[in-house]
From TrEMBL:
SMART domains: TLDc. This is TLDc domain-containing protein. InterPro entries: Rab-GAP-TBC_dom, TLDc_dom. It comes from the Eukaryota. The lineage of its organism: Eukaryota, Metazoa, Ecdysozoa, Arthropoda, Hexapoda.
């Protein structure tokens, strides 16, 4: 909205004048990485103000150290208000990940870079490992994002940020791989100045020096970055999701405090989202005949299974058979443009189960290159769950495997007669066009048992939630 930013500035600071004194930045900022990239004193004050207003508008952002440097780069080219609007788009994006917003996801990113490096740039990864112990290597990977934002020359960084705005965070992964490849090529020779730096001050110091003195042009650098084969978005997403699940499960099992934020709040909804969930579901049939403490525990368990970035949003009831009737046409009208969605089923026998659906139901109408409608769609972030009487999560089998058969990549399917979740040797959830009857089988995609005894079920209520920004 035009003028909204300046209204927020007045609300936060009481004036539109740039303050003379330093501004207290939000806690998600990393003070040691407030890079201003040659901005004047006035420019730096503008960055501080944009970041502060963003923190005020989005209090659920826990840890996001790249927000400040991205703001600083934007202010070289656009106005303060436009910069704020751009940052809101990046923070609020659900279709692509641009900016991680929790400490857990920040840890997931560097572990993802480390895993991808060991598979797709083996030579450079081995070279790095050879010159330091495992602990020190991990510390180097922990700083991967600062190889880019703090290390690379301005002219390289700007070209990379342009690509980032178009493609999302995967551009940074490719950038990190390119840095390792070029560093390895330049430093392998015994006569290299960087080899001498390695011997004198360590490989981490040499890598930092290399980034600052990047010996190739921005065009050549990007050619290396985008020339890495096999580094697909699907593969990166699979590694990222697998790493996130491992970290979350380790925290739950061990109560580890090694993550920068405790599990007591990391995996649970913020207070506003929790209130919204309970408020939305309060009068619905899902919670009928269920003790309050069982219902609340079930709700929080389900929330802890969601991807962390989705827990930053408020759940919105899109469709319920109680209010909108039992029609597949109505289901599509109300649900199909939302991504992701959470589908909950309560049977007439009081079983409660469902699925987190990562893609829009509207994709059922998309066609392949030959003009044929695609039977199945969705991504490996989709998962099944059972909440009552048993509580269990069934993620995609491909998360734990480098390769899977086609029958294990059947996530979602739909047409005018039915909707299906999961396939391959059975359908995990199948619902008819009247949204009254369904069946559940074991399937290859999620390696799940039938979600209710007997397999066939009659639907008492079906609810679908989307996720929107907090107001």
């Amino acid at each position: 909205m035009e003028g909204f930013y300046w209204e927020m500035v007045k609300q936060v600071f009481g004036t539109m004048e740039l303050p003379d004194k330093p501004i207290n930045l939000p806690p998600f900022v990393e003070p040691s990485h407030c890079h201003s990239y040659y901005l004047t004193h006035k420019g730096r004050a503008a960055v501080d103000r944009v970041v502060s207003v963003l923190g005020y508008a989005y209090p659920d952002i826990v840890y996001s150290p790249t927000i400040y440097p991205i703001c600083a780069l934007l202010l070289h080219y656009i106005s303060e208000e436009e910069c704020y609007n751009c940052m809101v788009c990046l923070v609020a994006s659900k279709e692509k990940t641009f900016i991680t917003q929790t400490k857990l996801l920040y840890e997931v990113t560097w572990k993802t870079v480390m895993q991808i490096s060991k598979k797709h740039v083996k030579g450079p990864a081995v070279f790095l490992q050879r010159h330091c112990n495992t602990t020190r290597a991990e510390r180097i990977y922990m700083d991967w994002i600062w190889w880019i934002f703090h290390g690379l020359p301005f002219q390289h960084l700007i070209r990379i940020i342009d690509c980032f705005f178009h493609e999302g965070i995967k551009v940074f992964y490719r950038t990190a791989m390119a840095i390792l490849i070029l560093f390895y090529k330049t430093s392998s020779s015994s006569s290299s100045e960087f080899q001498a730096e390695i011997q004198k001050n360590g490989v981490d110091s040499a890598l930092t020096k290399f980034c600052r003195e990047m010996p190739v042009t921005p065009q050549k650098f990007l050619k290396v970055a985008f020339g890495i084969r096999g580094l697909t978005s699907a593969y990166i997403s699979r590694v990222f999701i697998r790493t996130e699940m491992v970290l979350k499960s380790k925290t739950v099992i061990s109560g580890s405090r090694q993550l920068m934020r405790s599990r007591s709040s990391e995996n649970l909804p913020n207070s506003q989202s929790q209130n919204n969930i309970q408020m939305v579901s309060h009068t619905l049939t899902i919670r009928e005949r269920m003790p309050e403490e069982v219902y609340n525990e079930m709700l929080l368990t389900l929330w802890s299974w969601l991807p962390v970035r989705i827990t930053m949003y408020t759940p919105i009831l899109l469709y319920t058979t109680e209010e909108h009737g039992c029609s597949l046409t109505t289901f599509y009208v109300r649900v199909e443009q939302h991504e992701p969605t959470l589908l909950l089923i309560k049977t007439c026998n009081n079983e409660v189960f469902g699925a987190y659906c990562s893609s829009r139901w509207g994709e059922r109408n998309q066609k392949d290159q030959r003009g044929n409608r695609q039977a199945y769609f969705g991504t490996g972030e989709t998962f099944l769950f059972s909440l009552y009487p048993e509580r269990a999560k069934y993620p995609w089998v491909g998360i734990d495997a480098d390769r899977v058969e086609h029958g294990a990549e059947l996530f979602m399917a739909a047409d005018t007669k039915m909707i299906t979740i999961g396939g391959g040797d059975g359908q995990a959830i199948w619902i008819d066009e009247s949204i009254r009857f369904g069946k559940t089988d074991a399937c290859s995609t999620f390696n799940n048992p039938p979600l209710c005894p007997g397999g066939d079920f009659e639907i008492r209520v079906l609810e679908v939630y989307g996720f929107g920004m907090n107001e």
